[in-house]
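User: quick one, fold this
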Amino acid sequence: MKKFPKKIAMVSLAAMMGLAGCSTQQATEKTAEGNSEEAKEPVEITFWHVYSENFGAPVIKAMVDEFNSTHEDIKVKEVYNPDMYPGLMQNLQAEVAAGNPPSICMIGYNYIKYFAANFNYISPQDLIEQYVPEDKEYLSNTFMDNVLNLAQVDGEQIGMPYCISAPILCYNPELFEQAGLNPDERPKSWDEVREFAKQITEKTGEYGFYMQEYADNWAIQGLLESNGARMLEDNRAAFATQEGIDAYQILADMVLKDKSALHITADEGIQAFCNGKVGIACISSAKIGTVTQAAQFDVKGAEFPGFDGKERRLPTGGNFLPITAQTEEEQKAAWEFIKFAMQPEWLAKWTENTGYLPPRQEVVDEEGLKNYIEENQMLRVAFDEMDDLYSWAAYPGDMGTQAEQLLADTRDKILDGSQTPEEALKEAENTLNEMLEEQ
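Assistant:
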């Protein structure tokens, strides 16, 4: 674990007092000089995030503007990083190598072990102990233990948990009706998803299903683990079991055999759903706001499907906020901004605008958000899945980014038909286990 070296204390400057016998002009000059020195420039910090204009950025910008207007001694600059978490990680590596790291960055939970092993940061515990002992109860009073655990590695708090998302289904009731399906009856199992998708395609000519395809394995983890496979078990990849192969085969059959499912990028697939070209989409709850605002129909939601007689296991999506600032004043400023972002008011706005679940329980109990959840059927679905959330698989050491890319490539091989699920999963599992042995 890497941490920052001991910081050089900041030396405050004091204006020299005029000596006895100085002229009035000299005293005036010294007084003016003293006033100038006392007027300190605000501490500037950078906040890296992954949210675009049509996905969360307006709330981020409003929050930063409000903070800057109420904190004259701190100025926050928000910086958007395209391509979600993989894109931010690539940019972070480059900027750290150039000696220009951000003050706060947004790291996906799947990269937490890789981040902890490869980047400098200051843990919340250390920051509180060194600089703000009055906040010693902040973490325990603000978050539940299971939420704090999302941003921990081997018991150490790497950063602050921020966004929490769950995989859900959204569907087009108009296409359901056109296909002869009851829009009030949602698919509950993966076998039903395949049946519904096939019927939609046959009856309407549109695609029946799409599962989001970002450069990660998040949604696929829910599919495989809900059938009994495990992405990681006892520090070994364990997803190429018969259960994992069978689960992936359902998705492959929809794409390649039934021709009822799409295999395209996440932005393209979600847009196709919003355009009425897909009947059912498996997306992150974080996309609820995007989908409901963009769709030209009344979007309905359904819980992530399961397999008969098996425990449903859903990966916790989202991100945490580590402090990567390198000076004491920037670290203190970063801490103040993070606490500001964690206020119930802003967390509630974040949930309403995106669909992310808040990391603080009291936010859910606030009257405004509570009423909003009751009125938003898709958001209620996401909150109902909370009990089935498990950790997003995070690969250790230097293999974090390599593992995610390997699993994304594996998905492409399966869904473009170049390899069977059995061939691709066994090849990926063997490669990952060889990499794990070298850690």
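User: anything notable?
Assistant: The chain has a mean pLDDT of 90.
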